[in-house]
Design brief:
By secondary structure, the protein is α+β, with helices and mostly antiparallel strands. It is built from 17 helices and 23 strands. The chain has helices spanning 49-67, 109-127, 137-146, 150-155, 164-172, 192-195, 210-215, 241-247, 261-268, 327-335, 346-351, 390-416, 433-443, 455-467, 474-478, 493-510, 513-516, and strands at 5-11, 15-21, 27-34, 46-47, 74-81, 86-89, 100-101, 160-163, 189-191, 201-202, 207-208, 226-228, 237-238, 254-260, 277-281, 285-292, 303-308, 316-323, 360-362, 380-382, 422-426, 446-450, 483-487.
């Protein structure tokens, strides 16, 4: 099948994107819309689920109208998403019980400390994860305990839960009879990769785990979505009648794929071989390496996750290093400090100096993820002198992204016992030649940027297309990946290690800061 298109919906931390892809894996039309970031208290981050749903419909409409494509030519829809962000809602009305609690949110630090003290080995052995506020389970626990009436509704079946992929798929299929869960008024589903990010999913049995549900706030199993392969030939469901009429000229388009955004990026980068590795430069940085059909459990601070699945009850696994804040630090320069007006200004500003003048920036706004896993770390700028200018800070922010990536890559090499010959880069910040060159320099590894930047959206499209035989096999998809530019290391070993040593010293000074002043972050 070479005719038609696949529609990819990519719901990210800062906005929602829709892209139509053709059979060569090339984008035909794209639309994007940002949503609000809600900060009720220090360390809390929320999104309005209804705003996200409005924006999802908006970008779909913009893509279809702007491309002129007949909706009947869309063979399937794939969804990818900001993985750990979670919400609960009423399946009768579609109204959220509370805002979506975002993966960056730190409000559940106490619950995490309890889990670390009592159940860390249980959680690691079943989920491959390190107990952290990053993951979904303690966010559900918090909503059940702190939002009046929600626990009672959960027990009686009047609310259901899901990550953002589940929320979007349920809304797309609402009131459709052709879904896997008609009793939920829509397709209440998630894929194995997203389920593996909740801290409630046994990644070897590939199913929700009752023991994990019990120890993490007595979460009712019944509120969780049906877990399915990332590419599902059974189909999650078809677009419901209202959405079909509003957006698709009445066509009942199938929803056939879902996958977490970082797994989608590796899939879109044709990371099909064991050992293939990519780094996505987005709001945060996420490094994934394909470890094959058997999970590899990290001993040095990485997490083990499900990469993707194309068959019920089976999965391909990955090791992952999750860096919470990288591109978001550039937004902070723009919106917080206001030293740039648009994000693109950071590159020429950084390149206007040959170095940072000894300044290091540690972007631990919401703690540090892999390999440190310190939820009490906080952001730090160190090395400032009277001669420090905004251009030095701009360069330090970009360099911090590369340093954090090296922190994780060093652990990947340790865990896998092999060198990294090529790092595939994608995401918004990978457009920066300065950053990509500094990344190659500080890693001493070739960095390759693909022709199609939006590999997250592409990965979701590939998985949906495979489910409906739009693409016949993974071997076919390999042919479509193309490099746009390569970056080769060019600094000396002495300079590389001197710079990196300074970085490690800066990180030491950022660790644990919220423990020193807990009152400032709502921990008292």
């Amino acid at each position: 099948m070479s005719d038609g298109y696949i529609l990819s919906i990519d719901q990210g931390t800062t906005g929602t994107r829709a892209i139509l892809f053709n059979h060569e894996g090339l984008p035909v039309k794209m639309a994007y819309r940002e949503h609000r970031q809600i900060y009720p208290r220090p360390g809390w981050v929320e999104h309005d689920p209804l705003e996200i749903w409005v924006n999802t419909r908006y970008v779909i409409k913009q893509v279809l109208e702007g491309s002129g494509v007949n909706p009947g030519e869309i063979k399937a829809i794939g969804v990818t998403n900001q993985r750990e962000t979670i919400l609960l809602w009423d399946p009768e009305t579609g109204n959220p019980a509370y805002n979506a609690i975002v993966w960056q949110d730190r409000r559940t630090a106490r619950e995490v400390e309890y889990l670390k003290s009592k159940y860390i080995d249980l959680i690691r052995s079943k989920t491959g994860l390190v107990p952290d506020s990053y993951f979904s389970s303690t966010k559900i626990w918090w909503i059940l305990d702190h939002v009046p009436g929600v626990r009672e509704k959960a027990v009686s079946g009047r609310v259901i839960a899901g990550t953002i992929d589940t929320w979007i798929i349920w809304n797309l299929t609402r009131n459709s009879r052709d879904v896997l869960t008609p009793e939920k008024k829509g397709a209440h589903v998630t894929d194995y990769s997203n389920a593996s990010r909740t801290m409630l999913f046994d990644i070897q049995r590939i199913d929700w785990d009752r023991e994990l549900l019990e120890v993490q706030g007595r979460i009712p199993l019944e509120i969780l979505p049906l877990s399915r392969p990332s590419s599902d030939k059974s189909l999650y469901g078809y677009v419901g009648p209202e959405i079909a009429d509003e957006l698709f000229h009445g066509y009942r388009v199938p929803i056939a794929g879902a996958v977490g955004d970082q797994q989608a990026a590796l899939f879109g980068q044709a990371g099909f071989e064991q050992g293939d590795i990519k780094c996505t430069y987005g709001t945060g940085n996420f490094i994934l390496v394909n470890t094959g059909a058997t999970p590899v459990f990290s001993k040095h601070g990485l997490i083990t996750t499900i990469y993707y699945s194309i068959e019920p009850g089976k999965a391909v696994y990955a090791l992952e290093g999750s860096i919470f804040v990288t591109g978001a630090a550039i937004q902070w320069l723009r919106d917080g400090l206001k030293i740039i007006e648009v994000s693109a200004e950071v590159n020429p500003l950084a390149e206007s100096v040959s170095d940072t003048g000894g300044v290091y920036f540690v972007p631990a706004f919401t703690g540090l993820g892999a390999p440190y896993w310190d939820q009490y770390a906080r952001g730090l700028i160190i090395g400032i002198t009277r001669g420090t200018e905004r251009k030095h800070l701009a360069r330090a922010v970009l360099e911090s992204i590369a340093y954090l990536t090296r922190d994780v890559v060093e652990i990947v090499k340790l865990e896998t016992g092999s060198e990294i010959k090529v790092l595939k880069a994608d995401g918004g910040a990978s457009r920066s030649d300065f950053l990509m060159q500094f990344q190659a320099d500080i890693l001493n590894t070739k960095v390759v940027r693909p022709m199609v930047y939006e590999t997250t959206s592409l990965g979701a499209a590939y998985l949906a297309g495979l489910a409906v035989d739009y693409w016949r096999s993974i071997d076919e998809l390999r042919r479509y990946w193309r490099a746009e530019k390569e970056f080769i290391p060019r600094i000396s070993e002495e300079i590389r290690e001197r710079l990196y040593k300074g970085w490690k010293e800066a990180v030491k000074r950022a660790l644990g800061w919220a423990r020193e002043v807990p009152w400032a972050y709502g921990y008292e």
